[in-house]
Amino acid sequence: MDLAPEELQFLSISDILRESISIPRRSLKTFSLVTVALIFPLSFAILAHSLFTHPILAKLDSPYDDPSQTSHEWTLLLIYQFCYLIFLFAFSLLSTAAVVFTVASLYTSKPVSFSSTISAIPKVLKRLFITFLWVSLLMFLYNFILVVSLVLMIIAIDTQNSFLLFCALIVILLLFMVAHVYITALWHLASVVSVLEPLYGLAAMKKSYELLKGRTKYGAILVFVYLICCGVIGSFFTSIVVHGGDDYSVFSRIVAGGFLVGLLVIVNLVGLLVQSVFYYVCKSYHHQGIDKIALHDHLGGYLGEYVPLKSSIQMEDLAV
After folding, report:
1. Residues with Cβ < 8 Å from 279, sequence gap 6 or more?
2. If you count Cβ atoms within 10 Å of the first and of the last residue's Cβ in the chain, which end, N or C, has fewer?
3. Is the pTM above the cut of 0.85?
4. Which of 28, 8, 39 is nearest to 276 (CA)?
5. What is the Cα–Cα distance from 280 to 8, expressed in whole angstroms?
């Protein structure tokens, strides 16, 4: 980001995307290694998940399946789901930590390398994990309200209560269209805060909430576009690779699968870059400058470098 900090607040959504896409060119080797080592396994797991679960689910749906075999299939499915969630959770945090740290290092003109990024991840990961736990609690409350709304909708349909059905549909629509997108934006921004500021957990979420004020629309649009891209890629993968055995040859499915995985890798990389740039945009919008020297020292602390006592690692709110 070559723009002055005070100019970042004026970036439009297209400008944010343009700035994000241009960042990897500043350290192509580092971002290439991060992409191959972390983002590719994450993207592959997201798409390949349905490829591996589909045969198991097909057997469970079979009315001729032996009861003992069904028990085995359920056990296999639960084990696979558990391993998948652990893998997804781990590589999601690893990818976030690596990209945010690398972008911040470039922002402060700190030497960047794949080895330094990997060395910083263990300390960054702990902070991201605590923040993720608080976000998970928020998501639990969100899902609880969603389930209650679905139950009310079923009751309304059974009792033919049009008013109750209307209220349930409105709540569900708001949860999907507004709450889910907002919570996702809050989570992404809180993840960046957890890496770049001496805040994590609930404090990072509060800071993220404050930063989103005035830029909530931008954050919602960016998250919505990201989710739509992932959804479209996932739909094509499911229809062509997973369920396309009768319509496509094995070679066609392999080529399509490889292309879609590569496309998702690009989407995930750009998404992580966007959330990093969006953090600086929000800081600039609220006239909160970032002391690059303090940030430089803060990042160095993850690598075990000496942090001068006279230099606070906290980023104060400065009038631009």
Report:
1. 189, 192, 193, 196, 211
2. C
3. no
4. 8
5. 7
Cβ proximity of 262 and 4 under 8 Å: no
Question: Residue 245 carries which side chain, given as an amino acid letter?
Answer: G
Return d(Cα 67, Cα 224) in angstroms, integer.
43
Report whether 212 contacts 189 (CB < 8 A): yes
Rounded to whole angstroms, what are the CA distances from 213 to 135, 153, 180, 220, 223? 18, 33, 17, 12, 16
b/e string for 239-260 if b means 16 or more Cβ within 10 A? ebbbebeeebeeeebeebbeeb
- Report which DSSP code applies to 1: -
**Other beta carbons less than 10 A from residue 291's beta carbon:** 17
Distance, in Å, from the CA atom of 124 to the CA atom of 94, rounded to the nearest integer, reads 9
**Contact present, 125 and 152 (Cβ < 8 Å):** no
Q: Regarding predicted confidence, which is higher, 58 or 25?
A: 25
Nearest to 95 by CA among 13, 29, 20, 192: 192
| Whole-number Å distance between alpha carbons of 22 and 224 | 22
**Cβ atoms within 10 Å of 132's Cβ, excluding its own:** 22
Q: What is the pLDDT of residue 314?
A: 44
Query: pLDDT of 27-42, one tens digit each?
Result: 899 999 999 999 999 9
* Mean pLDDT calculated for residue range 145-151: 74
Residue 320, number of CB atoms within 10 A of its CB: 14
